[in-house]
From TrEMBL:
Its main location: membrane. The modification FMN phosphoryl threonine is found at residue 155. It holds the Pfam family NQR2_RnfD_RnfE. It comes from Oleidesulfovibrio alaskensis (strain ATCC BAA-1058 / DSM 17464 / G20) (Desulfovibrio alaskensis). This is Ion-translocating oxidoreductase complex subunit D. Its cofactor is FMN. Part of a membrane-bound complex that couples electron transfer with translocation of ions across the membrane. The chain crosses the membrane at residues 33-49, 86-106, 118-138, 188-206, 213-232, 238-257, 269-287.
């Protein structure tokens, strides 16, 4: 009788968690990220003109087309309408200079989708931030084409991190922090829009699309390690505020470190992850060959995410 009653009661069927919908969707999260990037998109077009628009459009279109074709070839549902591929393409574009040739943009966007996402199973399965995979391949394979300073000699802007790397802290001692915040620095599309990216980051925090622990800990790691170097010798190392406002620090804090599939989920783990990534940014800038250490620092921190996810609160009453 009991079995017959259960068979006639479909509402007792057991399903997979979660059983309570919080109202958040992938499409909604991607929309929030894209809205948050709009001020930086407008600022990039204002500063670099149609070259910036060309890089962003080409990267986004390539990412969407590559994902749609591959999903169709694998006989899986084509889900490009969730805007996740569009976001990945735009994030990659912000890691590239406005002078990047068309073929470099297409290759980077294709690597982002193929090697950064689909090879691991698609959205949510990638262990590292997908746009950083495409960026790393381009930076190692085509260093000359990725050289921002060599490609944009006709501009009056300077790259403060290059100045720091090759000419020392005294060369950047007089750089205006207000100017850095306003985007008066040469770099990738996501390196020059500090103020606009901060506005986008605040929007993501207000919408609760990102967890505040990750960007806060990332900024804390940058300030902590750069502060230690600055306290050791202020004539040789740049100030903590300089490191915070230059390169891709702000862009990485709100749009790369917060990648949900490659960052830990526990609060303590998120703090450790952010501090580790932020600390490695300054370490790479000081001892590494790359002026801006943000992309490689976040990639290395992504490798520790599975280990950090083992840090969990003890259940009540557990021994």
């Amino acid at each position: 009788m009991a079995n017959e009653s259960l068979a006639k009661a479909p509402f007792l069927a057991v399903g997979a968690a979660p059983h309570w919908h919080c109202g958040r969707t992938i499409h909604g999260m991607m929309r929030d990220y894209l809205i948050a990037l709009m001020p930086a998109v407008a600022m990039a077009v204002y500063m670099y003109g149609l070259d910036a628009l060309r890089v962003m459009a080409l990267s986004c279109v390539t990412a969407v087309v590559i994902e749609a074709v591959c999903l169709k070839a694998m006989e899986r549902d084509v889900t490009v309408d969730d805007n996740s591929a569009l976001l990945q393409g735009l994030l990659l574009a912000f890691l590239l200079p406005a002078s990047a040739p068309w073929w470099l943009v297409i290759l980077g966007s294709a690597f982002t989708i193929l090697l950064g996402r689909l090879v691991f199973g698609g959205l949510g399965a990638n262990p590292v931030c997908a746009p950083l995979v495409g960026w790393a391949i381009l930076s190692i394979s085509w260093k000359l084409e990725m050289d921002i300073d060599a490609a944009m000699l006709n501009t009056m802007l300077v790259n403060p991190l290059t100045q720091l790397k090759y000419f020392g802290a005294q060369k950047v001692a007089d750089i205006s922090y207000t100017g850095l915040l306003a985007g008066q620095q040469l770099g990738a599309l996501g390196s020059s829009q500090v103020g606009a990216l901060l506005l986008g980051g605040i929007y993501l925090l207000v919408r609760r699309t990102v967890r505040w622990q990750l960007p806060a800990a990332f900024f804390g790691g940058v300030l902590l390690i750069s502060g230690i170097f600055y306290a050791i010798d202020s004539s040789q190392y740049a100030s903590p505020l300089f490191h915070l406002l230059t390169g891709s620090v702000v862009f990485g804090a709100f749009f790369l470190v917060t990648d949900s599939s490659s960052s830990p989920v526990g609060k303590a783990a998120m703090v450790i992850f952010g501090l580790l990534a932020g600390g490695m940014v300054v370490t790479i800038r000081v001892y590494g060959m790359y002026p801006d250490g943000v992309p490689f620092a976040i990639l290395l921190a992504n490798m520790t995410s599975p280990l950090l996810d083992m840090i969990r609160p003890k259940p009540f009453g557990a021994r």
